[in-house]
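Re: the 117-residue chain
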Amino acid sequence: MASTVHWLLEVSVNEGQLEAFKALMGEMVAATQNEPDTLIYEWYFDEEKRTCQINERYRDSAATMVHLQSFGGFAERFMAAVTPVNFIVMGDPDMAVREGLAGLNPTYLSQEAGFSR
């Protein structure tokens, strides 16, 4: 799994935007289901529905770029509904992915040990 790109994005739901965000989330999940090399695409809310953790994993950097291109159609609405709090990217994304994610100020982590199945 060395070529996979995986991230956890924590966002805070902006005041009055929960329903709009949930509707957008549904659209984004439906669109992402058509990306065959998206391995994980999960959204989790805290109990108060103020914070959302978004867990994503892509087969490789090329698959990640397919997703980022699709995200472009949702980006404006996404950023109006939430405020990014923390963004951790794991794996070894190529420079194109890093450039595509730069606006979200990610922290990059490289795997030192372990495995996934």
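Residues 6 and 57 are 4 Å apart (CA to CA).
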